[in-house]
Specification:
Length: about 280
């Protein structure tokens, strides 16, 4: 059984840098605090907790002399201001590509456009982007785009991990109903690469395994994308979820993982699949 791991499976550079920064800060200062999970992956959060990176729900829960780390997905301006006003020691782990989306969206607003963010409702990154401007609209699907009120002039960006197919569908609806549209394609390049690679693997392999937490929108999206091409696609969180029967009559397995999945989980899953082959 041939096993192929997608070249860019797992951590994108933004998440990798944020997790490394959390480890480094926890090592240097014994503790570091984060508002919510640093990434949508239970293993990573638990590992970080063990070295002193703690999750809190409010700025007020961060002890006075301790550092607070703002996560890769970005943080809403109100929380930044609140933390600064309270004199907190902020460490900014926001991905530079997310900072760039914040900048783009503000520029679009300065052009007098109604801002539309194509993304998942309630996702931290989307909430952070929308909060950069006044009354942004979040649209997650073609149906929502069809039902959106008409505006004369809109500025559109997307969540960094969106599927281009979904964005295209939504933009096509806008073209049919809105006079003046400016769209900035803010799907990030690690996402584009990951999506291209899964499309190729899903066509070439008998079975596809996607590793990622079920709380991770981009892992679920990767699995959904693969499933449309290859019905034998399975999402797992770790090697324990793997079922031997998936590999019956299987000569080739493709593995990919969401942007919040650490390397060791990918290696662990690959080894378990190799073992199935040996035990056959
Ligand atoms: S998915 Fe893209 S934008 Fe988001 S943290 Fe990773 S590299 Fe940055």
């Amino acid at each position: 059984m041939k096993i192929t791991i997608a070249k860019d499976a797992g951590y994108c550079f933004g998440v990798r840098d944020a997790v490394n920064l959390a480890h480094k800060t926890a090592n240097e200062h014994k503790e570091v605090y984060m508002l919510g999970d640093i990434v949508h992956n239970e293993s990573v959060v638990s590992d970080l907790n063990k070295v002193g990176a703690k999750v809190v729900s409010s700025i007020d829960d961060v002890p006075k002399d301790k550092k607070i780390l703002f996560r890769a997905h970005g943080t809403i301006p109100k929380i930044w201001k609140n933390a600064e006003d309270k004199g907190k020691n902020i460490i900014d782990a926001t991905c530079p590509l997310v900072h760039k989306i914040h900048k783009e969206v503000k520029e679009l607003e300065e052009e007098g456009r109604k801002i539309v963010v194509i993304g998942d409702h309630g996702h931290d990154e989307v909430v952070g982007i929308a909060a950069q401007v006044k009354d942004a609209i979040v649209i997650s699907s073609k149906d929502e785009a069809l039902n959106m009120k008409k505006y004369r002039k809109i500025g559109v960006v997307s969540q960094s991990t969106q599927m281009i197919e979904n964005v295209n569908e939504i933009i096509n609806v806008f073209i049919s109903k809105i006079y003046d549209i400016r769209f900035i394609n803010t799907i990030c390049f690690p996402t584009k690469r990951n999506h291209e690679q899964i499309k190729e693997l899903a066509s070439d392999c008998d079975v596809i395994i996607i590793i990622g937490s079920f709380t991770s929108a981009n892992s679920k999206r990767l699995a959904k994308m693969s499933k449309t091409i290859n019905d034998r696609t399975y999402q797992v969180t770790c090697s324990k979820d793997i079922k031997v029967e998936w590999f019956i009559n299987c000569n080739s397995v493709g593995i990919s993982a969401g942007a919040s999945t650490p390397d060791y989980l990918i290696e662990d899953v690959a080894k378990s699949i190799e073992k199935i082959e040996t035990d056959k």
